[in-house]
Design brief:
With 504 residues, the protein is an all-alpha fold. It has a single domain, classed as Amino acid/polyamine transporter I. The chain has 19 helices and four strands. The strands form two sheets. A two-stranded antiparallel ribbon has the order 1-2. It has a two-stranded antiparallel sheet with strand order 3-4. α6 packs across α11, α9 runs antiparallel to α15 and α11 crosses α16.
Length: 504
């Protein structure tokens, strides 16, 4: 069994499996569509919601070691008891920039692997080709958590902005149909976030209909939300009060790092470009470009928003679910507020769309390898999309979106993504040693420096997350291992046809 757990699937076999007619996806995406997918995933709830949370910090109802960052507990023990997390203040712009550098290191690693292994599944597929089946299962299970929880958080933010837009029109949804059932600050209540649930299910239907239709809709929404952000930046810049930027780092580097751990959620998405590899016309060229271009564009927009937002309002007032909209309301830019609300809603919809696409493709890839039931790798005979995986992923995300609050969801998504980045960075180094002769359409520069730095900084950001999220993460992985050993290992294609597998 041990040899099976750590045997790898050759890259050539991965590519051959993707060409099976009954499981072949439709190739329609180019570099513009891929870049738009990346921007669509990255710029969503993050810029419109978490900028405020990270700047202002968080308070919790019941102080606990579980709410303290893991690094604080390791360094200070019981003295790390916390009532929340310190805000970055105006230095949230610095947090965005530093996190972008970390994501840039990981992005270079993703770009190299995507050009070598243009197969759906992203980090799951890359680890299967380098670290073996067990590690691939762990990262695949982790990606399910990343994409699902990310979308749950986006759906909650979408609901908040729908409420803001309706209130501006003189309409209010009942609180019990627009608020999550659980929040750390208030506990449980008999509520359900109906707007969040509904938008997930609508987009699930669109994804089943076709990838081209989904990509075209996403590109349009990306254009709308980028225009909305530009309107915010240029209109609000005239109302900046430099005194709001002082002190720039009110909670020193601890606040900057904690803010970085929170806003890392906002960068989740550039890796989702690689999940569409099998639907890309020229993946070896276009995938690396899509990953790196989307990351670069979004970094510029994020830093600009952070600088302006903390300049027009005191940083302590930004801790709410719609900081941009509320800040504009406070300075009476009501017309701009409406445009930004529309842009925020559009941005969140596009983010939901891309993450639902990514999650279904991961399930599709794992099912094709036998690690999940075969139904998940069925392709619709007309639309050529993995319809079963898409519908199940929609339900898996939609129901929790009506139950949980946005901050709880963000931290859980962060830790899963960081873990994926660590393994992808290691995978690049392994393939450089084991298969140096294999053609690479893109090579990460200074890879023996870039990849280790990616691993190091990702681990630092993981250490800045609360202990309770580490516990949830470990529990999630434990559940995944139970499923793997009870189902996945026995149904694995590796187990059935060992001759098709090889060590790197």
């Amino acid at each position: 069994m041990g040899s099976q757990l750590f045997r790898v699937k050759s890259i050539d076999t991965l590519i051959a499996d993707a060409d099976q007619p009954e499981r072949r996806l439709k190739r329609t995406l180019g570099v513009l569509s891929l870049t738009a997918l990346g921007i669509g995933a990255i710029i969503g709830t993050g810029v419109f919601v978490f900028t405020g949370t990270a700047a202002a910090g968080e308070l919790v109802k019941y102080p606990s070691l579980l709410k303290a960052p893991l690094l604080d507990v390791i360094l200070h023990g019981s003295q790390a008891l916390t009532t929340g997390r310190p805000g970055a203040g105006p230095a949230i712009a610095l947090s965005f920039f530093l996190v972008a550098i970390v994501c840039g290191f990981a992005g270079l690693c993703y770009a190299e692997l995507a050009s070598m292994i243009p197969i759906a599944g992203s980090a799951y597929t890359y680890t299967y080709a380098t670290l073996g089946e067990l590690v691939a299962w762990i990262i695949g299970w982790d990606l399910v958590l990343e994409y699902a929880v990310s979308n749950m958080g986006v759906a909650v933010g979408f609901s908040e902005h729908v409420n803001k837009l309706l209130q501006g029109l003189g309409v209010s949804l009942p609180h019990y149909l627009s608020a999550p059932a659980y929040s750390p600050a208030t506990g449980w209540a008999w509520h359900f976030n109906l707007p969040g649930f509904s938008i997930v299910m609508i987009l699930t239907g669109l994804l089943v209909i076709g990838i081209r239709e989904s990509a075209e809709a996403n590109t349009t929404m990306v254009a709308i939300k980028l225009v909305a952000i530009l309107i915010f930046v240029f209109a609000a810049a005239k109302y900046v009060e430099p005194s709001n930027w002082k002190p720039f780092m009110p909670n020193h580097w601890q606040g900057v790092l904690t803010g970085g751990a929170i806003v890392f959620f906002t960068y989740i998405g550039f890796d989702s470009v690689s999940t569409a590899a099998e639907e890309c016309r020229n993946p070896k060229r276009d995938l690396p470009l899509g990953i790196l271009l989307s990351l670069g564009v979004c970094t510029i927009f994020y830093v600009a928003v952070a600088v302006i937002l903390t300049g027009i309002q005191p940083w302590k007032s930004l801790g709410n679910a719609a900081p941009l909209v509320n800040a504009l309301h406070a300075i009476r830019l009501y017309q701009v507020e409406r445009w930004v609300t529309i842009g925020a809603l559009t941005g969140m919809i596009s983010s939901l769309l891309v993450f639902q696409l990514g999650q279904a493709r991961v399930w599709f890839a794992m099912s094709r390898d036998g690690l999940l039931p075969g139904a998940f790798s069925r392709v619709h005979p007309k639309f050529r999309t993995p319809h079963v995986a898409t519908w199940v992923a929609g339900i898996f995300v939609g129901i929790p979106s009506g139950v949980f609050d946005i901050d709880t969801l963000a931290d859980l998504a962060n830790i899963g993504t960081l873990f994926a980045f660590v393994l992808v960075s290691l995978a690049v180094l392994i393939l450089r040693r084991t298969q140096p002769e294999r053609p690479r359409a893109f090579r990460a520069p200074l890879v023996w420096l870039v990849a280790p730095l990616s691993v190091f900084f990702c681990l630092i950001l993981m250490a800045g997350l609360p202990v309770e999220n580490w516990i949830r993460f470990v529990v999630w992985l434990a559940i995944g291992l139970v499923i793997y050993f009870s189902y996945g290992r026995r149904h694995s294609v590796l187990e059935a046809t060992p001759v098709r597998w090889e060590r790197p």
